[in-house]
Write a structure and sequence with these properties.
The structure is a single chain. With 244 residues, the protein is of the alpha/beta class. Helix content is 45%, strand content 16%. It has eleven helices and nine strands. The chain has helices spanning 21-39, 56-62, 75-85, 104-113, 130-146, 158-163, 175-190, 206-210, 213-219, 222-227, 236-240, and strands at residues 8-14, 43-49, 66-69, 90-94, 98-99, 118-120, 153-157, 193-195, 202-203. Strands 3-2-1-4-7-6-8 form a seven-stranded mixed beta sheet, sandwiched between helices. The chain has a two-stranded antiparallel ribbon with strand order 5-9. Helix 1 crosses helix 4 (104-113). The longest helix has 19 residues, at 21-39. It is globular, with a radius of gyration of 17 Å.
């Protein structure tokens, strides 16, 4: 490994994830190291500590990440803060509670090297309760039929990120779908987007297993999301009652 600038930056927003980073961050590093070994290129992992009150920053550093801080608790802004700190020409966004398959970063980087402006890896949720599983299956079907991609794992070139002006910094929710729609539109002239359906990332099911299906359906209702994209009041419970 050399001291040259990284070619790819993994960006992970994190708020009070001290209990989850030791479980999920090693899968990110394993995927990154597999890509580095195969490509001869270099990557970095940036954890954006979003005003955590626990040991998120300390643990992220111990696990090998570079940590930057964003004090404003607004997810679109947090993702952009990570992107501004990134040194790679390719950006890979993942949530702090997502397990990556070993091939994830290799496949994403290959897509971008082949001309894609970006893309996503769909999630596979496996909640314990039947109602929650049916809800997750519905959203996966909707995604496969109508397009779009959740922010649990998205990627793009730095040039594409700059061209579409990143994530909406005023959005509290839905910033991922809105970003991907603009990235897709940009891709119609600059290059395709690549949804890597042959792979799946595995997010934590902590909300699905703790909250009722009705509560999850309310918070994931597209109408509710659209009506309150920039409303701190609407999303205050989502932001302050993160399931641990």
């Amino acid at each position: 490994m050399t001291d040259r600038d990284p070619d790819l930056s993994v960006i992970i927003p994190a708020y009070n994830e001290a209990d989850y980073l030791p479980r999920y961050l090693p899968t990110v590093f394993a995927s990154l190291r597999a890509w580095e070994a195969a490509s001869g290129q270099r990557g970095e992992v940036i954890v954006v500590d979003n005003a955590s009150t626990d040991d998120t920053a300390t643990i992220a550093k111990k696990l090998g990440s570079r940590v930057v801080t964003e004090l404003v608790r607004r997810i679109g802004l947090v993702r952009n803060t990570g992107a501004r700190a990134a040194e790679g020409r390719m950006l890979f966004f993942a949530d702090a509670d997502v397990a990556l398959p070993l091939e994830a970063i290799t496949a994403a980087a290959a897509a971008m090297e082949d001309g894609a402006v970006g893309g996503a890896i769909p999630p596979l949720y496996t909640p314990a309760r039947l109602g929650a599983r049916l809800l997750c299956a519905y959203w996966d079907h909707r995604r496969s039929r109508f397009g779009g991609a959740q922010g649990v794992t998205q990627f793009c070139t730095l040039d594409a990120f700059k061209a579409v002006h990143g994530y909406r910094p005023d959005y509290f929710m839905g910033e991922d779908m809105e970003f991907f729609a603009r990235l897709t539109a940009h891709g119609r002239t600059a290059g395709p987007v690549a949804v890597l359906d042959e792979l799946r990332v595995r997010p934590s099911t902590r909300r699905y297993d703790t909250w009722s299906t009705a509560r999850m359906l309310w918070w994931q209702n597209p109408l509710i999301v659209r009506l309150g994209l920039t409303s701190p009041r609407l999303w205050r419970h989502w932001y302050t009652t993160t399931v641990r």
